[in-house]
């Protein structure tokens, strides 16, 4: 039997249906893989061996008894530690939630459980999703399987690294400003940010409520489409959920035909500051799309130049409000202040937040509180929201001319640990290409586009479409994937170095 950890989710599903392999065998294979390599990768914060195997056994029993099950039933999955999971720790990568076990499931997690996907565990992340490298996790960084001395992206580096390291075929991430797509680009995986409201946010611990979105992390475009179809759709528990069917993403993936499509290259995303190898691979993909019959044109979105500044006012403002609930009164870490015999609630709260939050979280809370303060609200937060409107209008104008927009996903390949840790502004620039989609609420997808010449590390190309037009993204991404696989002789991840297996 082929190494089960190397099979895609779609291939595993086919093997289950053909009775060639059991869900227990597949789940155990991935648990063994985690045990063998995760001490080096550190993609997981918690592994649920018993729970995953119990779900797999239940799926096998149902199939054996002739009960109809979901096509992905039995396919293992990992979940970012930002989604509430009943009975499992949900820490958001922070000490302030260390040991917290939710009494309920996020809607995305509930849908995975109903469909019978064994949840292998919770993946590492930058604390409260604040970061682009997973270096800001209170529990230590995740490492990029391509080079263990480099970052796997962030904030969802754990989910991307777990998929790239063959520890799981599927993972769920969250994307507030690129936290699914940017890790996808630097680990050679596929990452999708659905339309805002297209996947339920209920049970997703909020960073910035108007920006956060859960989505798939996978090794192939088809796997992403299958997972997207499962977790997407309306949820009455989420007031921002769109009451509309999930776009026909699986059908679009299988179509993979760009002939006659209008594809726009965003002029503002790809100039100064982009690594030469990143730009070269992007140009290669654009040439392939043109050769395949797409009409490729340059499109200008001038307000994108202000997206980064607007985002880093809106996000901290919303974060400072959302994180106010961690007050040491109801749940989470509680620390008594030193030298105070009978501390007040405010003193306990101050001591607990000082001990429980990391530097990046404190930085953004301070920025957000300042931007929302009396006398500065209109100058900062209000102005940023006006820029957000201009960005949405630029998207609207662009999509009147083209079907899909394209750009590099990230300006560089994975950088080394510590290279940008002491320079927050340099770290923030990693999101320069991905942020506009979150500000406007449109869907985005990153698909591997090759290896940079200068360092041999993965590069991604980003696709953007109008709201609820994810089918366009999957169609184009599948076409790119197929054309590049023909050039490479297989998937890009097959070129990654083998990890040392611990016994």
Note down, in words, how this protein is organized.
The protein is an alpha/beta fold and 503 residues long. The model has no long low-confidence stretch (mean pLDDT 96). The protein has a domain at 4-256 and 440-495: Amidase signature (AS) enzymes, CATH 3.90.1300. The two termini are 21 Å apart. The chain has helices at residues 9-17, 23-41, 49-64, 107-115, 157-164, 181-187, 221-231, 249-255, 276-291, 307-322, 345-356, 359-372, 378-401, 424-428, 435-440, 470-488; strands at residues 44-47, 77-80, 119-123, 170-174, 190-193, 214-218, 262-266, 295-299, 404-408, 444-451, 458-464. The protein contains 16 helices and 11 strands.
Question: What's the short version?
Answer:
The chain is α/β, with parallel strands linked by helices. Helix content is 39%, strand content 11%.
Which features would summarize this protein structure in a list?
503 residues; alpha/beta; Amidase signature (AS) enzymes; 11% strand
Q: What's the order of the H and E elements?
A: HHEHEHEHEHEEHHEHEHHHHEHHEEH
Strand percent estimate: 5-15%
What's the alpha carbon Rg, rounded to whole Å? 22 Å
- Counting helices, strands and paired strands, the structural category is alpha/beta
Shape: globular
Give the SSE map.
Elements: H1 9-17, H2 23-41, E1 44-47, H3 49-64, E2 77-80, H4 107-115, E3 119-123, H5 157-164, E4 170-174, H6 181-187, E5 190-193, E6 214-218, H7 221-231, H8 249-255, E7 262-266, H9 276-291, E8 295-299, H10 307-322, H11 345-356, H12 359-372, H13 378-401, E9 404-408, H14 424-428, H15 435-440, E10 444-451, E11 458-464, H16 470-488
Parallel strand pairs: 2-3, 2-4, 7-8, 7-9
Antiparallel strand pairs: 1-3, 4-6, 5-6, 5-10, 9-11, 10-11
Helix pairs in contact: 2-3, 7-8, 8-16, 10-12, 10-13
């Amino acid at each position: 039997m082929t190494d089960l950890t190397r099979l895609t989710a779609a291939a595993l599903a086919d093997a289950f249906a053909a009775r060639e392999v059991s869900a227990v065998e597949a789940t155990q294979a991935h648990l063994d893989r985690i045990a063998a390599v995760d001490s080096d990768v550190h993609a997981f914060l918690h592994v649920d061996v018993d729970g995953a195997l119990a779900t797999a056994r239940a799926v096998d029993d149902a199939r054996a008894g002739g009960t109809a099950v979901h096509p992905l039933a039995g396919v293992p999955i990992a979940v970012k530690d930002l989604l509430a999971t009943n009975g499992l720790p949900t820490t958001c990568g922070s000490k302030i939630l260390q040991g917290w076990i939710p009494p309920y499931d996020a809607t995305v997690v509930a849908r995975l459980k109903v469909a019978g996907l064994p949840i292998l565990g919770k993946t590492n992340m930058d604390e409260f999703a604040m970061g682009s490298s997973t270096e800001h996790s209170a529990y230590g960084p995740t490492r990029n399987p391509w080079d263990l001395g480099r970052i796997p992206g962030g904030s969802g580096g754990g989910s991307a690294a777990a998929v790239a390291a063959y520890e799981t075929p599927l993972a769920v991430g969250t994307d507030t400003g690129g936290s699914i797509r940017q890790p996808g680009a630097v680990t050679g995986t596929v990452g999708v940010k659905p339309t805002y409201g297209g996947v339920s946010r209920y049970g997703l611990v909020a960073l910035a409520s108007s920006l956060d979105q859960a989505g798939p992390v996978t090794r192939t475009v088809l796997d992403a489409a299958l997972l997207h179809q499962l977790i997407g759709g309306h949820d009455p528990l989420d007031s921002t959920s769109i009451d509309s069917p999930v776009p026909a993403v699986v059908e679009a993936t299988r179509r993979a035909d760009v002939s006659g499509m209008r594809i726009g290259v965003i002029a503002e995303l790809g100039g100064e500051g982009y690594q030469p190898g990143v730009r070269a691979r992007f140009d290669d993909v654009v040439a392939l799309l043109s050769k395949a019959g797409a009409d490729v044109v340059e499109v200008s979105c001038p307000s994108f130049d202000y997206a980064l500044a607007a985002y880093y006012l809106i996000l901290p403002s919303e974060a400072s409000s959302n994180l106010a609930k961690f007050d040491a009164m109801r749940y989470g870490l509680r620390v008594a202040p030193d030298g105070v015999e009978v501390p007040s609630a405010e003193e306990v709260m101050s001591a607990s937040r000082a001990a429980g939050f990391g530097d990046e979280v404190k930085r953004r809370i301070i920025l957000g509180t300042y931007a929302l303060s009396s006398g500065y609200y209109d100058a900062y937060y209000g102005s940023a929201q006006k820029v957000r409107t201009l960005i949405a209008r630029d998207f609207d104008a662009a999509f009147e001319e083209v079907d899909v927009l394209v750009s590099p996903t990230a300006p560089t390949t994975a950088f080394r640990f510590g290279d940008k840790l002491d320079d927050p502004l340099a770290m923030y620039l990693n999101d320069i290409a991905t942020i506009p989609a979150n500000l406007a609420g449109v869907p985005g997808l990153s698909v591997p586009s090759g290896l940079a010449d200068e360092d041999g590390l993965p590069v991604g190309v980003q696709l953007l479409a109008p709201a609820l037009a994810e089918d366009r993204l999957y169609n184009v991404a599948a076409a790119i994937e197929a054309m590049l696989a023909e050039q490479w002789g297989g998937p890009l991840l097959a070129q990654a170095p083998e990890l040392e297996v611990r016994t």
